[in-house]
Amino acid sequence: MGSRNSLLGEDPEEKMIRLYSNELHVTDQTPPAFLVHSGDDDVVPIQNSLRFYEALQQHGIYAEMHIYPTGGHGYSLATTRGTEYLKTWPDRLIDWILSLP
User: Fold this and answer.
1) Is there a contact between 37 and 71 (Cβ–Cβ < 8 Å)?
2) Radius of gyration over alpha carbons of the chain, in Å?
3) Closest listed residue to residue 33, CA positions, set 86, 79, 93, 83
4) Which of 9, 32, 40, 55 could form a disulfide with 26 if both were Cys (CB 3.0 to 4.6 A apart)?
5) pLDDT for the residue numbered 37
6) What is the C-alpha separation between 101 and 91, in angstroms, rounded?
7) Which residues lie closer than 8 Å to 44 by C-beta, 6 or more apart?
8) CB 53 within 8 A of CB 63
9) Mean pLDDT throughout 28-41?
10) If you average pLDDT over residues 47-71, what whole number do you get?
11) Domain 2-99 in this protein, CATH class
12) What is the mean pLDDT of residues 40-64?
């Protein structure tokens, strides 16, 4: 678990794992969320975003998720050649914000 080990260390207490597992803290009061993740992110496993999105859906939270096949971690404005499609996420975010209920 790359991101968990980076954040909590090699052998974290169960209490700390639960504290930093976003999907376990979703309630009916959680604000809307816009998620963007790359399938090849080698820092934060895509399963983290998938679990969080699923928890949002289970609580009826307005959410949108975009998964890009490549881009790694922290690609921001996608300056790497061959990943120009990643530059679309800011426009998708604006559309999502404008669609908020």
Assistant:
1) no
2) 15
3) 93
4) 55
5) 94
6) 18
7) 2, 3, 37, 73
8) yes
9) 95
10) 96
11) alpha beta
12) 95
